[in-house]
Design the sequence.
């Protein structure tokens, strides 16, 4: 059988998605693939179906609301001194409970080589939180840079559609290399080098404590993404994504894919930040009738909103079986 | 999107990687030069350890009752996002008593309990637990600080009013100054603007009057006439004297990260 867990990790680290061999495909999936291939009315059905698509923005709206409210909570906790969520995204206290960003904690632990008890408490809390809520969901539901990049992405797509520019892809393995490099740099230099560059930290602090020169770096990154490479930082560079992706690999909260209802139109892959995780939706690729989308998925829900047949859904593994 | 060969993808990715690392290097270049010695919050580890331990969350900034802590920006040398104190603008006057920033720090960059294997330089530890004048009447009048942030020194003796035999009348600082301080005679838990307090002295002794620590500074007579402030061993380097000094620039300043040297 096609091992989804190891395949999910391979994709997370930057390898090209592996196409399951016929032996790795479940008989039920094979039957469905064959039925779709041999359906004589398929072209006609698809035509009428595509003429009647209604797109939703339900999950996008919810996600933007959560992202903005979360960041606003940080800002207002300080400005109005309501002490609900003190600190910034690298480390904070929620009603007094320590919460520490996993990547920042890793950088500090490697650079400082001492791990105080509060760092452990905060890191474990955040690990459990995102293990439950879907790892890279941190990226799309909390990270303020994600939202900025999501907005400016429209500009990039517009320029591409006008043929003014074209998108340049990078190798996704870069992120793994950078993750390792920044870990080594922190350990060797005793300085949290990545924190100097982290757009997540810079933006979070700028929102809470006021803007600074660091915002120039953010603008530079956004320009690079608009003019040269679509969503480059989140797709190919950011080590935080890899850290949370690893946590997400064991998360029960995932996007689930149903082969039988899917028309293989590919709309989901066009809106996806990490389209390699949706490799299984390509005609003939799914190894099973139901597939869990891999760890690199940010659970942003754009594919769920976009899918015209409802074949992609938010799912809580285990809970679904119980209900 | 045009069909790209694997090779081009790899070359571009290699270049992208190199560019990001080069940028990291370029961003780092002005860093050592810009790294003037900064006054760090109380309980800070030695500079190198402090910078590696700080997670740049700013929780210390949020709890300071006088907003003495600021976060460094990109152009400020090492430690973007790491807190420092500009004593002349707003010193740490310990008006929180318990040193809230230390309690707020989640990573031990500011700490009461320094790991034993971390560096401690000569002159940094204080001889005795510092007595906070504001807590003098409490059963436990001391601060739990074992090391100083720096020491005060009369770096511009020519400007010192006391040395010229002059007094000072009115608010400590120029109009428009916004720094805050706690005056026990006003309110124990509510710091007020320093300039709301009017001083009146025959011989200026603002540095001595405002110092929050017992026995850290005194006025002594000069042989040639006039008086001069003398900084003593209990000085923690909090910077209140620098903030309160009425001359412009301040005659007395903090030497950040400097240890106590016996004369």
Sequence:
């Amino acid at each position: 059988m096609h091992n989804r867990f190891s395949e999910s990790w391979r994709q997370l680290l930057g390898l090209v998605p592996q196409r399951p061999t016929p032996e790795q495909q479940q008989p039920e999936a094979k039957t469905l693939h064959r039925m779709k291939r041999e359906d004589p009315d398929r072209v006609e059905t698809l035509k009428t179906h595509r003429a009647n698509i209604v797109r939703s923005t339900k999950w996008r709206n919810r996600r933007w609301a959560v992202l903005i409210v979360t960041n606003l909570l940080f800002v207002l906790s300080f400005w109005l001194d309501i002490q609900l969520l003190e600190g910034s995204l690298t480390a904070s206290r929620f009603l007094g409970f320590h919460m520490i960003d996993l990547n920042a904690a890793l950088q500090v632990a490697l650079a400082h080589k001492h791990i105080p008890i509060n760092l452990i408490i905060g890191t474990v809390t955040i690990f459990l939180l995102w293990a439950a809520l879907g790892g890279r969901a941190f990226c799309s539901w909390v990270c303020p840079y994600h939202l900025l990049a999501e907005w400016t992405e429209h500009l990039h797509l517009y320029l591409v559609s006008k043929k003014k520019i074209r998108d340049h892809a990078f190798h996704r393995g870069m992120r793994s290399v950078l993750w390792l490099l920044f870990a080594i740099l922190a350990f060797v230099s005793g300085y949290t080098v990545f924190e100097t560059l982290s757009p997540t930290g810079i933006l979070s602090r700028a929102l809470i404590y006021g803007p600074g020169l660091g915002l120039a770096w953010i603008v530079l990154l956004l320009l690079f993404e608009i003019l040269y490479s679509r969503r480059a930082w989140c797709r190919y560079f950011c080590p935080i994504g890899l850290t949370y992706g690893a946590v997400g690999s064991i998360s029960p909260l995932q996007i689930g894919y149903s082969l039988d209802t899917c028309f293989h139109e590919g709309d989901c892959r066009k809106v996806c930040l990490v389209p390699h995780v949706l490799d299984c939706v390509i005609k003939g690729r799914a190894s099973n009738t139901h597939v869990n989308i891999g760890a690199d998925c940010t659970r942003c829900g754009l594919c769920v909103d976009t899918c015209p047949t409802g074949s992609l859904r938010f799912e809580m593994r285990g809970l679904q079986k119980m209900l | 999107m045009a069909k790209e060969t694997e090779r081009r993808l790899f070359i571009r990715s290699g270049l992208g990687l190199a560019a990001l690392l080069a940028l990291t290097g370029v961003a780092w270049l002005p860093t050592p030069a810009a790294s003037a010695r900064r006054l760090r919050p109380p309980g800070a580890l030695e500079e190198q350890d402090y910078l590696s331990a700080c997670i740049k969350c700013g929780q210390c900034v949020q709890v300071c009752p006088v907003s003495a802590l600021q976060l460094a920006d990109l152009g400020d040398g090492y430690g973007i996002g790491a807190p420092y104190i500009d004593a002349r603008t707003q010193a740490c006057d310990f008006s929180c008593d318990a040193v809230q920033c230390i309690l707020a720090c989640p990573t031990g960059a500011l700490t009461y309990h320094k790991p034993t294997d971390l560096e401690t330089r000569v002159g940094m530890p204080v001889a005795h637990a510092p007595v906070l004048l504001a807590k003098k009447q409490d059963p436990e009048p001391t601060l739990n600080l074992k090391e100083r942030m720096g020491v005060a020194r009369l770096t511009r003796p020519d400007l010192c009013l006391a040395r010229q035999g002059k007094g000072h009348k009115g608010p400590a600082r120029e109009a428009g100054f916004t720094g805050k301080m706690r005056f026990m005679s006003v309110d124990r838990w509510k710091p007020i603007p320093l300039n709301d307090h009017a001083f009146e002295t025959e011989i200026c002794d603002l540095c001595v009057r405002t110092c929050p620590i017992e026995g850290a500074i005194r006025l002594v007579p000069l042989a040639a006439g006039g008086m001069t402030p003398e900084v003593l061993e209990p000085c923690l380097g909090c910077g209140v004297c620098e903030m309160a000094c009425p001359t412009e620039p301040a005659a007395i300043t903090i030497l950040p990260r400097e240890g106590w040297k016996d004369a």
Remarks:
- The longest strand of chain B covers residues 217-221.
- The radius of gyration of chain B is 22 Å.
